[in-house]
Amino acid sequence: MGQAVDDGFGPGRGLMALATALAELEARTRPVAGVERVSLRNGLGRILADDIVAATHLPPDDNAAVDGYAMRFDDLPPAAASRLPVIGRAAAGHPYAGAVPPGCAVRIFTGAPVPAGLDTIVMQEDCRGEDDLVVIPPVRMRGANLRRAGEDVVAGSTVLTRGTRLEPPHIGLAAALGQAAVPVFRPLRVAVFSTGDELTEPDQAPVPGRIRDANRYALMALLQRLGTDVSDLGILPDRLEAIRDGLAAAAGQHDLIVTSGGMSVGEEDHVKAAVESLGRLHLWRLAIKPGRPIGLGRVAGVPFIGLPGNPVAMVVTFLRVARPLVIKLGGGVNEALPCYPVRADFSLKKKPGRREWVRAVLVRGAEAAGWADGLPLARMWPRQGSGILTSLVAADGLIELDEDLAQVEPGMTVPFLPFHGLM
Fold first, then answer.
1. Model confidence at 9, in pLDDT bands (50, 70, 90)?
2. For 7-34+187-329, which CATH superfamily applies?
3. What is the pTM of this model?
């Protein structure tokens, strides 16, 4: 994708392990989105197109971590209280401008720059004022309550890297370093359409033999979560010419085309033929359940992803296969998925050699109290069919069962992918 698909992905390879497929796609995919500069106010959720290097220290100067008195550590006797004259004050935004003679202190407030030559701050709660003097208890540590220049960020260091999706802390850090605008990738322009004479829009009354198009709307929402600019091309009829024309038009205005369904070899499945008439297509047969056949290719030079038509298979394959591709094409960096251990509250036989996902709800509290480690119990949703949309709403996430596993027993520790970290 991007420059990704070549004959190495052809159908002669048989079923491919998920990890192998993801590694190959990661290695072969390059960003296709353009670059622009946006203000920090418009940067949330955008993907950095270049590293941000600190031009200055953060903080820029030594400053006070508390309200108190600033002084030289060497002016303080090691085991007795001190009385030092207070010759001025320093507050945030109002630094003390003069030189501080030896044996003197400055009243200082949190965030204020520390006057030159002073290296220790004693909290006001530990001091006592006497006219123009301050009485200071014995101080044990040089540099107490002082924030050093550059202790957060050193000038010249890379603080945010290319491919980072900007979240609120990133925005704050960029602002602190004087970045009023940042280089970001333009949102990936993604075209989505469905095919099928049996499909209708959600607001249309159902008639015999027709169903409402749920996949397209779920797919567009999944893509929007990733910050893409989604174009809804609607429902295309089951005619090769119409699908080919729709693909050709989409390729001229988008960076990526994503569909679900129509990738089989039935008489009414025309997406495969339409893609091949305009570019290249490889049907990947992955060793996974649900899912397995996924179409990857290019339409007039534009990357194409064809997902399965069953709703659950479409969502699962999007999350585990298409999602990393979309992120990489948009300039982002794929990080490890959120995953944590849970205890299975069910038994299940599984076919070895295949990666499988089971929709599950988590049980905590009294029902999970029988295990000393405190892990939540994962209860398999009772209906696991690929068309059960309600399971995606009711479940908390997916239990991922790797290829080597043949049997799940109650109490077994299994990895859990929460939906809230994926969708």
1. very low
2. MoaB/Mog-like domain (3.40.980.10)
3. 0.85
